[in-house]
Amino acid sequence: MMPRYITQDYRSRIRPTWCKGCSYYGVLAALTEVFAEKQIDPHRLNVVSGIGCSSRMTLCLNTFGLHTLHGRALPVAIGSRLVNPDLTVVVAAGDGDFFSIGIGHFVHAARKNFDMTVICMDNRMYAMTKNQASPTSIVGYRGSLTPWGKMSVPLNVLEFAIACDATFVSRTFAGSQQHMQETISRGLDHRGFSFIEVIAPCGTFDRTATLASLSPRMVDINREHRHDPADKKAALAAAVQALDYDASDDAPVPIGVFWENSVPTFEERIAEIKKAHKKKASFASLLKNYSL
Amino acid sequence: MMPRYITQDYRSRIRPTWCKGCSYYGVLAALTEVFAEKQIDPHRLNVVSGIGCSSRMTLCLNTFGLHTLHGRALPVAIGSRLVNPDLTVVVAAGDGDFFSIGIGHFVHAARKNFDMTVICMDNRMYAMTKNQASPTSIVGYRGSLTPWGKMSVPLNVLEFAIACDATFVSRTFAGSQQHMQETISRGLDHRGFSFIEVIAPCGTFDRTATLASLSPRMVDINREHRHDPADKKAALAAAVQALDYDASDDAPVPIGVFWENSVPTFEERIAEIKKAHKKKASFASLLKNYSL
Amino acid sequence: MSAGDILMKASAHEGFDATVVKSFPSNIRGGYSQSLVTIAEKPAVSPIGDCAILFALSSNAFLLDTLHLTPRTLILVETTAHADGQGRDRFKQLSAAGQTIFSVPVLQLARETAGSSAIRSTVALGILGELLGMGGDQLRAAVAWRFREKGTGLIELNRIALDAGILWARQHIDKKYWLTVPRRRARTDREDRFMLEGNQAVALGAIAAGCTFYTSYPITPATGVGETLSRLMTAHGGVAYQAEDEIAALGAAIGASFAGVKTMTATSGPGLSLMQEFLGYASMVELPVVVVDVQRAGPSTGMPTKHSQDDLFAAIFGGHGEGQRIVIAPATVEECFSATVTAFNCAEHYQCPVIVLSDSTLGMMKRVIAKSALESPVIINRDIFTGSDDTPTPWLRYRLTDSGTNPLTIPGVSSVTYRATGIEHNEDSTPATTPFERCAQMEKRFRKLRRIEMEMDNPVLWDLEPADTVPLDACLCSWGLTASITREAIASLRGEGFRIAAVYPRLLFPVCTEAFNRWADLCTLQIVVEANFTGQFCALLRMSTRARPHPLTVSRGEPFTPPEIAAGIRSIINKEAAA
Amino acid sequence: MSAGDILMKASAHEGFDATVVKSFPSNIRGGYSQSLVTIAEKPAVSPIGDCAILFALSSNAFLLDTLHLTPRTLILVETTAHADGQGRDRFKQLSAAGQTIFSVPVLQLARETAGSSAIRSTVALGILGELLGMGGDQLRAAVAWRFREKGTGLIELNRIALDAGILWARQHIDKKYWLTVPRRRARTDREDRFMLEGNQAVALGAIAAGCTFYTSYPITPATGVGETLSRLMTAHGGVAYQAEDEIAALGAAIGASFAGVKTMTATSGPGLSLMQEFLGYASMVELPVVVVDVQRAGPSTGMPTKHSQDDLFAAIFGGHGEGQRIVIAPATVEECFSATVTAFNCAEHYQCPVIVLSDSTLGMMKRVIAKSALESPVIINRDIFTGSDDTPTPWLRYRLTDSGTNPLTIPGVSSVTYRATGIEHNEDSTPATTPFERCAQMEKRFRKLRRIEMEMDNPVLWDLEPADTVPLDACLCSWGLTASITREAIASLRGEGFRIAAVYPRLLFPVCTEAFNRWADLCTLQIVVEANFTGQFCALLRMSTRARPHPLTVSRGEPFTPPEIAAGIRSIINKEAAA
Ligand SMILES: Cc1ncc(C[n+]2csc(CCOP(=O)(O)OP(=O)(O)O)c2C)c(N)n1
Ligand SMILES: Cc1ncc(C[n+]2csc(CCOP(=O)(O)OP(=O)(O)O)c2C)c(N)n1
Ligand code: SF4
Ligand code: SF4
Ligand SMILES: [Mg+2]
Ligand SMILES: [Mg+2]
Fold first, then answer.
1. Chain C neighbors (3+ CB pairs < 8 Å)
2. Are the Cβ atoms of D230 and A144 closer than 8 angstroms?
3. Which atom of ligand 4 approaches the CA of B17 most closely?
4. Are residues B106 and A103 in contact, defined by beta-carbon separation less than 8 angstroms?
5. DSSP element (H, E) containing D125
6. Which residues in D lie closer than 8 A to residue C320 (C-beta atoms)?
7. pLDDT at residue D28 above 70?
8. Nearest ligand to the CA atom of B21
9. Could you tell me if B147 lies within 8 Å of chain C, comparing CB atoms?
10. Among the atoms of ligand 4, which is closest to the Cα of residue B52?
């Protein structure tokens, strides 16, 4: 049978404003490929983003989407899931967006286990505002507001997502189209909060790491280390090791699915309560609660 | 030698507005005892709080203090530490304040390892707004905005604080004056971000747990389980077990110091940079950077 | 707090119009709380008026409440509350001044009869009921209802306490002090009358308007809206969601609106401040959303349970940049219902955020309301485009229409997708920053606001003098709860012979320029009454109309009283006449 | 972007006054960017004026920039930019209309001579320098300076490119088209002149005022303030801190202020929206703090790099409740420095938040500034009480003084402690909600704002006609960068014979009521020029003064030009005269 949608059907008419050589082009391509592979109706997709170079992703897609405020993609995505659980919701933003200003929303969304696929394009900096340290930047990083070097250790987003009870925690690499597609596809299949960190160096402001320099270092922990994502202890251990890729050495960088488990989603719990109140009460009957 | 300050010197003239039987009276007493024990000058103490029954703590003390906004105590405390590292800073607020609206600030303050003692009076609910579920409330908790029961699992604040790289993570109980004093005292001694959860049931809205009912269940893990707070794995394991006290059973509730390690504080890192720039540049010399 | 409610219910059962206004401190314990019960034959205009009977059960209440008295007020005070100190002095002082004042051993009666001091308010209720000439039956029924879930033992105890109060009043207070409220037969239409708080009326208004998603973060005094909707929403097939903070609450409401449903969030001042960025976003992406602000006295944490109308400017102008917002204010509990319905209608129709400004007093005020006030309001739903074979490409979500609006497409429903963005954009929602595109979209968005005064039903309420009484002494304006109180003040001033024309806006913003220009033309002396410090609506009129009104304001955490407003107006009129 | 800077530097070295105004899109790549260089003998009034030479290097720039021309503008356009499509049509059209226009093979010259197309702006610079009659030496020196950190190879390449441009201009452009800027000897006082952007001037102003704590969250176009201060603060013994968001940034600033130091944070619109709650807190606890808002076009994300003055209302009225805020706006890069100093002085003196309203154009505009403009400003420090043996107990932090202010006590410094709270409080900072205490504190806090117009140096700048030229045609007012542009427009209108009196407020809020009433009395026709949609300052004057001004506004992401303002004023004057 002819597929109904081809990859191009998921691309909007907008030309991305990313720099030449930006790793986000790859993420965009991977997303459209996966959407086409799964033949999700573009009008049943809601791609929500924040603000940043990465968050422009929404605008490049021909799905429904909300390009929201810096750090606030998750609450908006949650609203749309709560009233329409039939929508496939993807949240795409940057490390600054999710983990600096937006980290509170991240914790709560993950813990409540909303069913959505959350993609953090992690270039370990604020790129759009022209290079400042983000929570994932390495110690000593010289961003424009930290000229003497960043003074705190990078946030390990995988460990953190596991600590926040995300039910699917994974990492992929913008330089590997296939790995991205596999990971995003699994994230979409997962019922619950699927977190995907995409290692996606900034082609303009990162003076050390590039897609090309990082590429040989990627190691899929599921395939090469037979890591079992159902094993929480192993997941945490693997995440702790994955802390950080340092551009100055050539240590392997683990990618793959670190952790996955199955827990009822927030939406499912709501559906249960709704079932218990199946008959929709009329306005008049609600009013009775207040009669004299 | 006569001590310079007695306990009463740390109490302001304000009569607390807490209900009779509120566990926060005990926390107040413990704080003033510890301050007196350490003979900290009241005017070198800055006690910062948010908004909630718990956050009224600031007003009851005769130290310097800032009763700030709901969820925002930590950033304010950080500002005062950054410009005056000689101040002893205590941040005192509730579970709703720290872990719902304020959780983003918590993550960042802990990760940066600011040197302050952070006391969460955890009654597992919003008491001041008359009983709503908080992130630490148990599943199914019927707060006034969750009449069909809370739909997400409680946040394990100890595990979470460890995941946020807090360098001192402990728990104590409002029903044990001595344990509180010991724990707060150790927290103050610790150089870095000291987190103390105080189990402090609400005497008015909690229909199941009380100071009296919980008291026999408290077990100090350091004393009774010989838990070594320097052992991170053990700390995490102990924290995972400590998740929650359920009022319906009588399982032991672990308290004590779960985790402690020594890492330079943010203030210390800044001091280092300042040292490198020891000579204060004159305004005229700064201007030179911009001369034609 | 429940004694006031019981008295209200009993009076309502007897067929009276009744209102309870509550006031209490923000901490859980301590402080003094107050219930102000108004019982009237015809629906009362103002929920606040001269105090006929003051019953003070604590010395604190005695000291504070005896500051607002008329010489005719009958004072009852618990014996121990004036036993010593300031209480004793005040008692002497009042007696000496000729005020009718009785010392009542409420506490003692409660202990003696029911064996518990906790039940003293029921004793007081018995005394009050008797002084009002109420039959004990209604009161007993109301008490039974109040404690219906607490078991027969407690009901019985309360009955005993009630009777003790009734008896004490008969024995100790001369009939001449009793209030001769004309009796009437108990009404039988209980089914068609409801007892609602303002916050509950807002919640019911939302349900009636078709809201199916409510989300909020707890905050006094708005939590009542959420408490009501959390229960009702589920029964009504919708979803209520407690968010982690106010930013997330409004974010979720916008996300749900994008997904196609009517959404609301309620908060109070601090939450409104936090919502400013998302309010701007909603106006930029042109999505309907209703935000209820149950105002409390600011700034900052301020006085969390206390009355104020000081968020008007934050509601209109609070966000960076220039977005479109509509602001509506109810003046009564009934209007809490209808204003909420109107807010949803406006949000859907104009596709922008609509803010309903209630306040702590109105939100927690209880009133008896007739069914007719809650029935079949006009409902407007958004214009949805589901897509068609010949849908123009690209889809022009923000087409430059004369009206300024366009149909919405909805994920899962419409085949035509678009991406909403808070970046300035062109007609098809692509980011666009040329001066031409920018100006076109700014003008388009602001066009929406120009139509409201014409299109909305009764955006202002007129209360004019008959045409032949001109010239007027003054033109009055007031909004929100203060409008209700001002109406009573004006009625009494008219009784004194003043000629006053008044206008009460429900639509606060955009300002009804036409209406207020007409109003300003009626008389050169214009006065705006409101409960804030700087006279915000007054300033708004100066800035957007021909009017040059005087402010008459108060910002003390308590509403104006009608005599205060009357006195204020009288003094401005006299001063102007002298000038 | 650097070609404009180099030209500016070279001109400055020759002793001219020079300004560069930059404009670019918010995304990192693509879009078109623009440098507008003004070179003048005497300090230029307006940084924006008629364009003498337009040099378009891309077709996009060519198409957009040729929309704002005078018939005298000399146009240079890169050959490939008008080779086909709309570019070709526009070229033909302009030639046909008699505009002087040259096709310049910049790209080709760059490739041929320096072997790289990246260097084309240096070729263009050579051409421009020659047309302006500049000596090649200054340009060569400036180019060398620009690439001083890139190695001699690149410097040499750029010199070659520069010379290629100079040569091309000599060979291909007739001398009659050259601009005859009068030559002067190179000035030797380079040490005493500085090249500063508005954002840098703000940063230096903070240092000069004694600020030792700066905290912010990155946001365009305010980041430049932080970039400067992050370096300078440390060298100056202070601390600069990157917070996790804007709420935390202002929170930390307030905490640091409480701990005794002068603090500042800078942001743009979205950040200002997020800071509303903490701004209210600062006014309630009466702590000094300076917030710089480098405005960009809103609402919401809007146009992040584009010009606007649309945050005025959010700055004044954005928070819930009624707090005290002072709002100040610089009109020039020099004033970015002095206004920031004034902001700190006001914050310390009145103990409340002070907001400095800059904007994207002003913030990124570069100017040559004399040392004298940056020297020894008057500095006000807070009044600190360290405690004494007879300190009254309790300590009355919020005593009801006539001035409205009291000394502060500082942790670690003063022996007298207090607890600051955002709850309404009494004189000793205890939460207090009686009407008396509430009213007393509200009045006390608002008293502070009444004094400013009298106490501040030059809160408004007057530009009057000589006394004997009355009657006037109009009274003008403008603020911020637009004031600078308006001044030039007024100069040209006066040249045409119009009689105009103008006032330029630096203190925007509280409104200088006295001054503006006097202004309004000068002429019944009053006009306020500003770069926003709704005419915010105009509305502010209507609401707080006798003035009834007309708004003259634009909100397109670009500043007004002087001719546009002149045309706008002319048309209002003529319309009024006709009416
Ligand atoms: C409230 C608010 N604060 C700050 C900004 C400015 N801002 C825009 S993008 C950005 C950082 C983006 O970083 P990240 O999310 O990592 O995305 P990237 O550009 O690196 O892909 C910031 C701080 C904003 N738009 N809104
Ligand atoms: C911005 C804002 N949102 C909401 C509130 C209302 N509020 C006051 S206290 C509180 C909850 C306090 O809970 P917690 O921190 O656990 O303290 P507790 O009262 O339980 O001690 C809330 C939601 C507020 N003051 N400000
Ligand atoms: S600045 Fe970096 S992250 Fe942004 S578009 Fe360019 S390469 Fe990509
Ligand atoms: S409501 Fe609960 S937490 Fe608050 S003061 Fe009373 S007992 Fe304490
Ligand atoms: Mg990033
Ligand atoms: Mg709590």
1. A, B, D
2. yes
3. 5
4. no
5. helix D120-131
6. 268-270, 272-273, 293, 295, 298-299, 310-311, 314, 318
7. no
8. 4
9. yes
10. 4
A56 inside 8 A of chain D by CB: yes
Extract the residue ranges of chain C whose pLDDT is less than 70: 1, 26-31, 180-188, 468-469
Residue D393 CB neighbour total at 10 angstroms: 9
Which stretches of chain A sit within 8 Å of chain B by CB? 100-105, 107-108, 111-113, 135, 148, 151-153, 155, 159-160, 163, 165, 266, 269-270, 273, 276
Among the partner-chain residues C311, C422, C556, the one whose CB lies closest to the CB of D435 is: C556
In terms of CATH architecture, what is C2-188? 3-Layer(aba) Sandwich (3.40)
Measured from the Cβ of residue B278, the count of other Cβ atoms closer than 10 Å reads 7
What class, spelled out in words, does domain B7-288 have in CATH? alpha beta
The C-alpha atoms of residue C466 and residue C296 are separated, in whole angstroms, by: 37
Nearest CA to ligand 4 atom 6: B19
**Helices D276-285 and D246-258, interaxial angle, to 10°?**
10
How remote is the CA of residue B134 from the centroid of ligand 4, in Å? 14
**A72-76, C427-431, C437-441, D16-20: which range is least confident on average?**
D16-20
Ligand 3 centroid to A53 CA: how many Å? 6
Whether D194-374 shares its CATH topology with D459-578 is answered yes
The topology under which CATH files domain C194-374 is Rossmann fold (3.40.50)
Q: 């300190």: which residue's tokens?
A: D391
Q: Is B80 in contact with D277 (Cβ distance < 8 A)?
A: no
d(CA C231, CA D85): 64
In this complex, the residue of C30, C219, C231 whose CB is nearest that of residue B17 is: C30
Distance A177 CA to ligand 5 centre (A): 20
CATH for D459-578 (3.40.50.1820, 3.30.110.170, 3.40.50.920, 3.10.580.10): 3.40.50.920
Bridge partners, D263 (sequence order)? D213
Residue B75 contacts D, CB cutoff 8 Å: yes
With vertex at residue C540, the alpha carbon angle to CA C539 and CA C544, rounded to the nearest 5 degrees, is 120
For chain A, the average pLDDT equals: 95
Q: Rounded to whole angstroms, how far apart are CA atoms C364 and C202? A: 11
Q: How far apart are the C-alpha atoms of A232 and A238, rounded to whole Å?
A: 10
Q: Which residues lie closer than 8 Å to B166 by C-beta, 6 or more apart? A: B110, B113, B118, B192, B193, B194, B195, B259
- Residue A140 CB burial class (10 angstroms; 0-12, 13-18, ≥19): exposed
Sketch the domain layout of chain B as residue ranges. Answer: 7-288
| Cα–Cα distance, A77 to A48 (Å, whole number) | 6
Q: What does DSSP say about strands D507-509 and D550-553: parallel, antiparallel, or unpaired?
A: unpaired
Element containing residue D505 per DSSP (H, E)? strand D500-505
Residue D114: the pLDDT is 81
Q: Can you read off the two tokens belonging to residue D256?
A: 């640091």
**Which residues of D are less than 8 Å from B13 in CB distance?**
394, 430
Cβ of residue C230 closer than 8 Å to a chain B Cβ: yes
Q: What is the mean pLDDT of chain D?
A: 92
Could you give the CA distance from residue B274 to residue B279 in angstroms, rounded to a whole number?
A: 9
3-state secondary structure of D203: helix
> CA separation (Å) from B282 to A185, D198, D500?
59, 21, 44
Q: B-chain residues within 8 Å CB-CB of C301? A: 51, 69
Q: Is the ipTM of this complex over 0.95?
A: yes
- In this complex, the residue of D299, D311, D423 whose CB is nearest that of residue C302 is D423
pLDDT higher than 80, residue D457: yes
Alpha carbon distances (Å) from C63 to C95, C102, C106 = 14, 15, 18
Q: What are the residue boundaries of the structural domains of chain C, listed by start?
A: 2-188, 194-374, 459-578
Contact check, Cβ <8 Å, C298/D320: yes
By 3-state DSSP, what share of chain A in percent is helix, strand and coil, each rounded to 5? 40, 20, 40
